Automatic annotation (TrEMBL):
SMART domains the UniProt entry points to: KISc
Subcellular location: Cytoplasm
GO molecular function list: ATP binding; hydrolase activity; microtubule binding; microtubule motor activity
Binding site for ATP: 82-89
UniProt family annotation: Belongs to the TRAFAC class myosin-kinesin ATPase superfamily. Kinesin family.
Highest taxon listed in the record's lineage: Eukaryota
InterPro entries for this protein: Kinesin-like_fam (IPR027640), Kinesin_motor_CS (IPR019821), Kinesin_motor_dom (IPR001752), Kinesin_motor_dom_sf (IPR036961), P-loop_NTPase (IPR027417)
Keyword match ATP-binding: yes
PANTHER family: CHROMOSOME-ASSOCIATED KINESIN KIF4A-RELATED (PTHR47969:SF15)
Protein name per Swiss-Prot or TrEMBL: Kinesin-like protein
């Protein structure tokens, strides 16, 4: 949970009697927030970040260890949830640019900074690495590729498919190869300028769409016959992020997969995907005094978040979970795109963003309840590793011939 400070806009726009701060950290229980409304409510989270929290603190405490996981081969997703102007875009850094102030930079630029410093280190010298980024927006249930240049009509349709292993594939989406933080920031800025923004009463820059910025990392590395990979261990120990929620320890899974290697010096490739999700405002429609087109957007935004809520509820409510076999991923583009990340093969962090002001109390309580349910979701993440050439027919045929010859000689 992140509680933003009162902003200049709040001081100007909110009636002064509703500017009162209604949230506080529990003095006795860590990571518990107290809502001081008509009655006192308490909610527990994995972390509670107060208004004084800096961008760096959020990154170091909650995000950095997920970047380590990503490098190990896990899929990672971070979602920012909350009403308009609660601090989602600020926290994620979705519209940061190369020129934005270092201190105010959000999660995306910080994560990429860490990623590139690892990739350029000697530790990674022996690996072949490619990194690609994509940026997609869901606006009125349409998928829009934010990195495509040129005419609207020529944009290929983005389609969501599922492969034989049940992985979700976003086909038709532009994936751009990147070699530096600056390149990534360039694409991020270009994409966020393409984002649908419209003025509502609540926030003049209000983003009425969900935006998903993704980084795909493909690492090829050589492993030796004893199943130990060449230098991979990270020197810095990472503090686990609520390990019980994140499935089994990675080391065990890693060694298990690797022991399947057949030969000396086998190359394996590990592909992992990092999704940074900046969700549209979660407020109820009437709050934004929307009309016409804007009202239509509001309705479809709510349907995406509603579907997300239903998926979270089906996955996360222990009383329902027993009887639920059907998880309604297909009810919206948003949940379909994030299927892997919600109770699937990913390490997931949801950052609930709230305003401290009494004026927003009902939306704040909605967000706290929603995030609390999301906390019950259990994901099981595994490293996406396979032997190089596993999909290459010629390679496999040669391998069969080689193994046959070996068996023959043994006989
Ligand atoms: P959202 O994306 O949820 O609509 P924004 O991230 O655009 O909200 O935040 C709304 C305003 O509040 C912006 O002007 C932003 O700079 C400011 N803001 C949000 N969070 C913080 C924070 N933690 N510290 C300082 N300013 C913040
Ligand atoms: Mg925003």
């Amino acid at each position: 949970l992140r509680i933003r400070p009162l902003t200049q806009e709040d001081l100007i726009n909110l009636p002064s009697r509703f500017q009162r701060n209604i949230l506080s950290n529990s003095p006795f229980t860590p990571n518990q927030v107290i809502v001081h409304g008509d009655k006192k409510l308490t909610f527990n989270f994995d972390y509670v970040f107060g208004p004084e929290t800096q961008q760096k603190d959020i990154y170091d405490t909650a995000v950095r260890n997920m970047v380590d996981k990503f490098l190990e081969g896990f899929n990672v997703t971070i979602l920012a949830y909350g009403q308009t102007s609660s601090g989602k875009t600020h926290t994620m850094g979705t519209s940061d640019s190369v020129s934005s102030n270092q201190e105010s930079r959000g999660i995306i630029p910080r994560a990429l900074h860490t990623l590139f410093s690892y990739i350029n280190s000697t530790q990674f010298k022996s690996r072949k690495i490619t990194m690609k980024v994509s940026f997609v927006e869901i606006y009125n249930e349409d998928l829009i590729d934010l990195l495509i240049e040129g005419e609207d009509e020529n944009r290929p349709q983005v389609i969501i498919r599922e492969d034989s292993k049940g992985n979700i594939i976003w086909s038709g989406l532009q994936e751009i190869k990147v070699n530096s933080v600056e390149e990534v920031m360039g694409h991020l800025t270009r994409g966020s300028l393409n984002r649908q923004v419209g003025a509502t009463d609540m926030n003049s820059q209000s983003s009425r769409s969900h935006a998903i910025f993704s980084v795909t990392l493909c690492q090829q590395k050589q492993i030796s016959s004893n199943g130990i990979s060449s230098p991979t261990a990270f020197s810095r120990p990472s503090t686990p992020l609520t390990p019980t929620k994140l499935g089994s320890p990675p080391s065990r899974r890693l060694s298990k997969t690797m022991s399947m290697s057949l030969d000396d010096g086998e190359w394996v490739s590990i592909t992992s995907k990092f999704n940074f999700v900046d969700l549209a405002g979660s407020e109820r429609l009437k709050r934004t005094a929307a009309s016409g087109d804007r009202a239509k957007e509001g309705i479809s935004i709510n349907s995406g978040l509603l579907a997300l809520g239903n998926v979270i509820s089906a996955l996360g409510d222990p009383s329902k979970a027993k009887n639920t076999t059907h998880i309604p991923y297909r009810d919206s583009k948003l949940t379909r795109l994030l299927q892997d990340s919600l109770g699937g093969n990913a390490q997931t962090l949801m950052i609930a963003c709230v305003s401290p002001a009494e004026y927003n109390i009902s939306e704040t309580i909605n967000t706290l309840k929603y995030a609390n349910r999301a906390r019950n979701i259990k994901n099981s993440a595994t490293v996406n590793q396979e032997e190089s050439g596993w999909n290459d027919l010629e390679h496999l045929q040669n391998l069969v011939l080689k193994l046959r010859a070996e068996i023959k000689s043994i006989r």
